[in-house]
Fold:
Amino acid sequence: MEDQNIKTQKASYLYAQKVLERKIKDEELTLSRGRKLFIAGILKLDDYKELKKENQVSTKNLKKEARDIFIKLRAIDKKNQVEEKALVEIFQRFSEFDSSDKRHLVNLIPPTDVDFKTGDLSLGLNQAFLKILSKKDNRKTEKR
Structure:
Protein backbone atom coordinates (compact mmCIF):
# COMPACT_ATOMS: atom_id res chain seq x y z
CA MET A 1 0.00 0.00 0.00
CA GLU A 2 2.82 2.38 0.85
CA ASP A 3 4.37 1.75 -2.57
CA GLN A 4 1.02 2.47 -4.25
CA ASN A 5 0.60 5.68 -2.22
CA ILE A 6 4.06 6.84 -3.30
CA LYS A 7 3.22 6.10 -6.96
CA THR A 8 -0.07 8.00 -6.66
CA GLN A 9 1.62 10.92 -4.94
CA LYS A 10 4.39 11.03 -7.55
CA ALA A 11 1.84 10.94 -10.38
CA SER A 12 -0.05 13.77 -8.71
CA TYR A 13 3.12 15.85 -8.42
CA LEU A 14 4.03 15.18 -12.06
CA TYR A 15 0.55 16.25 -13.17
CA ALA A 16 0.73 19.41 -11.06
CA GLN A 17 4.17 20.14 -12.52
CA LYS A 18 2.77 19.94 -16.08
CA VAL A 19 -0.16 22.21 -15.16
CA LEU A 20 2.23 24.77 -13.66
CA GLU A 21 4.46 24.68 -16.74
CA ARG A 22 1.40 25.34 -18.89
CA LYS A 23 0.32 28.26 -16.65
CA ILE A 24 3.82 29.78 -16.78
CA LYS A 25 3.78 29.60 -20.59
CA ASP A 26 0.32 31.23 -20.59
CA GLU A 27 1.64 34.07 -18.41
CA GLU A 28 4.58 34.56 -20.78
CA LEU A 29 2.17 34.63 -23.73
CA THR A 30 -0.06 37.17 -21.98
CA LEU A 31 2.91 39.47 -21.35
CA SER A 32 4.05 39.07 -24.95
CA ARG A 33 0.58 40.02 -26.24
CA GLY A 34 0.45 42.99 -23.87
CA ARG A 35 3.85 44.15 -25.12
CA LYS A 36 2.65 43.93 -28.73
CA LEU A 37 -0.49 45.92 -27.87
CA PHE A 38 1.65 48.55 -26.14
CA ILE A 39 3.98 48.81 -29.13
CA ALA A 40 0.98 49.10 -31.46
CA GLY A 41 -0.33 51.99 -29.34
CA ILE A 42 -3.50 50.17 -28.29
CA LEU A 43 -2.42 49.75 -24.66
CA LYS A 44 -1.39 52.79 -22.62
CA LEU A 45 1.87 52.88 -20.68
CA ASP A 46 0.16 52.77 -17.27
CA ASP A 47 -1.98 49.80 -18.32
CA TYR A 48 1.07 47.97 -19.68
CA LYS A 49 3.03 48.60 -16.50
CA GLU A 50 0.14 47.26 -14.40
CA LEU A 51 -0.20 44.20 -16.65
CA LYS A 52 3.55 43.56 -16.45
CA LYS A 53 3.59 43.95 -12.65
CA GLU A 54 0.68 41.50 -12.18
CA ASN A 55 2.29 39.10 -14.62
CA GLN A 56 5.62 39.15 -12.80
CA VAL A 57 3.98 38.44 -9.44
CA SER A 58 1.93 35.60 -10.89
CA THR A 59 4.91 34.09 -12.71
CA LYS A 60 7.07 34.33 -9.58
CA ASN A 61 4.44 32.46 -7.54
CA LEU A 62 3.99 29.78 -10.20
CA LYS A 63 7.75 29.23 -10.42
CA LYS A 64 7.95 28.92 -6.63
CA GLU A 65 5.22 26.26 -6.70
CA ALA A 66 7.06 24.46 -9.52
CA ARG A 67 10.31 24.48 -7.47
CA ASP A 68 8.47 23.08 -4.44
CA ILE A 69 7.04 20.24 -6.52
CA PHE A 70 10.46 19.56 -8.05
CA ILE A 71 11.95 19.28 -4.56
CA LYS A 72 9.20 16.86 -3.50
CA LEU A 73 9.75 14.70 -6.59
CA ARG A 74 13.49 14.66 -5.98
CA ALA A 75 12.89 13.58 -2.36
CA ILE A 76 10.73 10.66 -3.53
CA ASP A 77 13.42 9.58 -6.02
CA LYS A 78 16.16 9.86 -3.37
CA LYS A 79 14.15 7.71 -0.97
CA ASN A 80 13.73 5.05 -3.65
CA GLN A 81 17.47 5.10 -4.41
CA VAL A 82 18.38 4.75 -0.73
CA GLU A 83 16.08 1.72 -0.36
CA GLU A 84 17.51 0.05 -3.47
CA LYS A 85 21.06 0.76 -2.37
CA ALA A 86 20.37 -0.78 1.06
CA LEU A 87 19.06 -3.96 -0.57
CA VAL A 88 22.13 -4.27 -2.81
CA GLU A 89 24.44 -3.65 0.15
CA ILE A 90 22.96 -6.63 1.99
CA PHE A 91 24.28 -8.96 -0.69
CA GLN A 92 27.56 -7.12 -1.19
CA ARG A 93 28.37 -7.43 2.51
CA PHE A 94 27.29 -11.07 2.81
CA SER A 95 30.84 -12.22 3.55
CA GLU A 96 30.99 -9.85 6.55
CA PHE A 97 27.90 -11.36 8.24
CA ASP A 98 28.23 -13.81 11.09
CA SER A 99 27.04 -17.36 10.47
CA SER A 100 23.58 -16.90 12.03
CA ASP A 101 22.85 -13.87 9.82
CA LYS A 102 24.10 -15.73 6.75
CA ARG A 103 21.89 -18.70 7.63
CA HIS A 104 18.86 -16.44 8.05
CA LEU A 105 19.47 -14.73 4.70
CA VAL A 106 20.04 -18.03 2.90
CA ASN A 107 16.80 -19.39 4.38
CA LEU A 108 14.98 -16.64 2.51
CA ILE A 109 16.15 -18.25 -0.75
CA PRO A 110 15.75 -22.03 -0.31
CA PRO A 111 16.65 -24.42 -3.15
CA THR A 112 13.56 -26.07 -4.67
CA ASP A 113 15.23 -28.39 -7.17
CA VAL A 114 18.79 -29.65 -7.50
CA ASP A 115 20.05 -31.57 -10.53
CA PHE A 116 23.16 -33.35 -9.28
CA LYS A 117 24.19 -34.47 -12.78
CA THR A 118 24.31 -31.00 -14.32
CA GLY A 119 24.76 -28.97 -11.16
CA ASP A 120 21.70 -26.86 -11.98
CA LEU A 121 19.92 -25.36 -9.02
CA SER A 122 16.44 -23.81 -8.85
CA LEU A 123 15.75 -21.42 -6.03
CA GLY A 124 12.49 -20.53 -4.34
CA LEU A 125 11.89 -17.24 -2.62
CA ASN A 126 10.39 -16.59 0.78
CA GLN A 127 7.16 -14.58 0.31
CA ALA A 128 8.43 -11.60 2.29
CA PHE A 129 11.69 -11.55 0.35
CA LEU A 130 9.78 -11.93 -2.93
CA LYS A 131 7.73 -8.83 -2.08
CA ILE A 132 10.91 -6.85 -1.38
CA LEU A 133 12.43 -7.88 -4.70
CA SER A 134 9.22 -7.24 -6.65
CA LYS A 135 9.02 -3.78 -5.07
CA LYS A 136 12.54 -3.12 -6.33
CA ASP A 137 11.71 -4.42 -9.82
CA ASN A 138 8.59 -2.25 -10.00
CA ARG A 139 10.65 0.84 -9.29
CA LYS A 140 13.10 -0.04 -12.04
CA THR A 141 10.31 -0.38 -14.61
CA GLU A 142 8.81 2.93 -13.41
CA LYS A 143 12.05 4.78 -14.14
CA ARG A 144 12.23 3.52 -17.73
Q: What stands out?
A: The helical segments are 2-39, 45-92, 99-107, 127-143. Residues 1-92 form one domain. The CA atoms of residues 84 and 136 lie 7 Å apart. The longest strand covers residues 111-114.
